[in-house]
Amino acid sequence: MLGLGAGSFLSSSAQSEKVFELRIYTATPGNLDNLHARFRDHTTRIFGKHDMKVVGYWSPTSEEERDDTLVYMLEHASQEAAAASWQAFIADPEWEEVAAASNANGQILGGIENKYMVATDYSPMQ
């Protein structure tokens, strides 16, 4: 019975309202510091060029994830805006250069999980 009403907390207009994107990156073995450096030195700034607002970056505290996982959240004007921003980001020549340079000795990113979310009507973060 718990799951039956879950959808009622979310707006049916999720496509056109502000969305948050939770992303969980798993670095390849020994490359978490390189992944942090890429975000610190390049990615965050390039996100800004494409209207991708960083809410925050986090490191897990669990022993099994702390050595290879980066968690972050982005805010987008809408799900459509998120899709357009990601397309522009991926095609950005500066990003292409940064990605190629950071992966010159092998891929630093092993996996990506992401979820798009809208705030509930009672969430402090709207």
Plain-language structure description:
There is one protein chain. This protein has 126 residues and is α+β, with helices and mostly antiparallel strands. The chain has a single domain, classed as Alpha-Beta Plaits (2-Layer Sandwich). Helices cover 33% and strands 25% of the residues. It has helices spanning 32-49, 79-91, 93-102, and strands spanning 19-27, 53-58, 69-76, 109-117. The chain has a 4-stranded antiparallel β-sheet with strand order 2-3-1-4. Helix 1 (32-49) packs antiparallel against helix 3 (93-102). The longest helix is centred in the first third of the chain and has 18 residues, at 32-49. It is globular. The relative contact order is 0.26. Residues 1-12 have low confidence and may be disordered.
CATH domain topology: Alpha-Beta Plaits
Q: What share of the residues lie within helices?
A: 25-40%
DSSP, total strands: 4
What profile does the largest beta sheet have? 4 strands, antiparallel
The SSE order reads EHEEHHE
Instruction: Please report which band the strand proportion falls in: under 5%, 5-15%, 15-25%, 25-35%, 35-45% or over 45%.
Output: 25-35%
